[in-house]
Amino acid sequence: MMEVEKAKASLNKILSKFATRGEIGNVTPFGTGHIHDTYHVQNLPPGDPHYILQRINHHVFKNIPALMENIQVVTAHLRAKLQQDPQANPAQEVLTLVPTQEREWYYKDSDGSYWRVYYFIPDTVSYDVVESQALAYQGGKAFGRFQALLADLPVSQLHDTIPDFHNVVNRLRLFREVLQKDPVERASGVEAEIAFVEERAVAMSTIYHLGQAGKLPLRITHNDTKFNNVLLNKSNKAQCVVDLDTVMPGFVAYDFGDAIRTTINKAPEDEADVGKIRVDMDLFRGFTEGFLEETAHALTPNEIESLAHGVLLLPFLMGLRFLTDYLDGDHYYKIHFPEHNLQRARAQFQLVRKLEEQFGVLQGIILEVAQKNELVTRDSRN
To answer: Are residues 352 and 225 both part of a single domain?
Structure first.
C-alpha cells in the first residue's frame, strides 16, 4: 500500500507541472501500448476535463524535443483545417496537448524521464481486433482523412524522429548484425524464421528502391497505423487518429500496409496458434474503400501500385523487428513472457504467407476501388 501511495504522489507531482485545471482524483494505468507508460487522469469536479498522462520512452525516441515539435505542428495544422469545416469538432477530432506551467510541450523530471499530457477524449472506443467490414471502412476513412488533411503541410516542417523507421534495407542490416553477435544465444532456435526473412529480403525491398529512384513522393505519414490508433464514437464512426509519435515523412504504402496488417487478421498480433491467422478479404475491401475515398484523387499511379507491396512489407517488417528484438534480448518491446517477441514474429510471418497467397486479389481490389474513386472525383469536378 505504501508503494502505491508513493507512486500516486509521484504522478501527482508530475501533473502539477502542467497547466491542468480542477482537482485530480484517480490516476490509473491506461491502454495496451508497447512503448510508453500511459495513465488516465480523472478530474473530480464535474465538467472539468480528464487527461492522459504519458511518460515518453526516450530510449526508443532519442530526440524528445523534435518529437513533440512534430506533434504540435501536426495537431495545430489538423485543428486549423477542421475549423474550416462547420460540421467538424476539432476538440474531439484532434489530439490536444496540455502545456506545462512554463509553456513547454513536455516536462523532464529529475530522473531524466520525459512527460506529456493530452486532453482525454471522452465517449470513444478503440478496437484491437476488427469485427466487421463497416468497422474496417471507418478505419480506412480515419487514416485516409488524416493524410488528406496533412497533404498541404510541407514535409520539410517535420523532423525525421526515427531515421530509417520503415527502411527495410536498414532493418535487415540491423537484423543480420544482431544475428551474427547472437548476444543471448537464441539464434539456434529460430532457423526457420531466419530462412523466412532471407528468402524474402529482395522482394520486400521494392518500395525502398522505388523511393530511392524518386518514383514515390514523400508525404507526411502516420507510420504506426494500427487499427487501435483510431478512436471511434459511440456509433462506431471514426473520430480521431491518435499515437502521433511516429508522424514524419514517409511513403503512403507504409500507412496503408500497416493498417491492413492490423485490420484483416482477426487474430491478435501475438497469436500463439498461427492456424488461427487468416486474411479476411471483406475487411480488406472495407478498409481500402474508406482509405481511397479520402486519398485516391491525390495519389500517383505508382503510389496506387505500391499499396499492395506495402500490405506485404509491413507485417514482414514487424515480424523482422520482433525477431531482431528477441535475438537481442528483448530491449525494445515490452514482453509478458520470455518468448513473447518470438511468438509475435511468428504470427506476423504467418500473416505474410497468407497475404502472399492472395496478392493478385489484393492488387485487383486496390485498382478497382482506386479507379472508382478517380471517376467519382472527376465527375464531381465537371
So the answer is: yes
Residues whose CB falls within 8 Å of the CB of residue 306, separated by 6 or more in sequence, listed in order: 206, 207, 210, 216, 251, 252, 253
Q: How confident is the model over 359-374, as a mean pLDDT?
A: 94
* Amino acid present at 358: Q
Q: Which pLDDT does position 1 carry in this prediction?
A: 43
Asked which of 183-197, 270-284, 364-378 is least confident by mean pLDDT, the reply is 364-378
Q: Where do the H-state alpha helices sit in the chain?
A: 2-15, 64-82, 90-93, 133-149, 168-181, 191-200, 206-212, 252-261, 281-295, 301-328, 340-357, 359-381
What span, in angstroms and rounded, lies between the C-alpha atoms of 35 and 253? Answer: 23
CATH classification at residue 58: 3.30.200.20
Task: Evaluate whether residue 363 is within a structural domain.
Answer: yes
Where residue 231 sits, what CATH number does that domain have? 3.90.1200.10
Residue 128 lies in a domain: no
Instruction: Return d(Cα 139, Cα 260) in angstroms, integer.
Output: 10
* Residue whose C-alpha is closest to residue 318's, from 291, 347, 338: 347
The predicted pLDDT at position 382 comes to 37
Asked if residue 265 and residue 323 are part of one domain, the reply reads yes
Residue 42, φ and ψ in degrees, nearest 5: -95, 130
DSSP 335-382: -SSTTHHHHHHHHHHHHHHHHHHTHHHHHHHHHHHHHHHHHHHHHHH-
Distance between CA 196 and CA 266 in Å, rounded? 23
CB atoms within 10 A of CB 16: 12
- Residue 187, H or E segment: none
Q: State which residues form the domain around 244.
A: 133-381
**What is the rounded distance in angstroms from the CA atom of residue 57 to the CA atom of residue 55?**
6
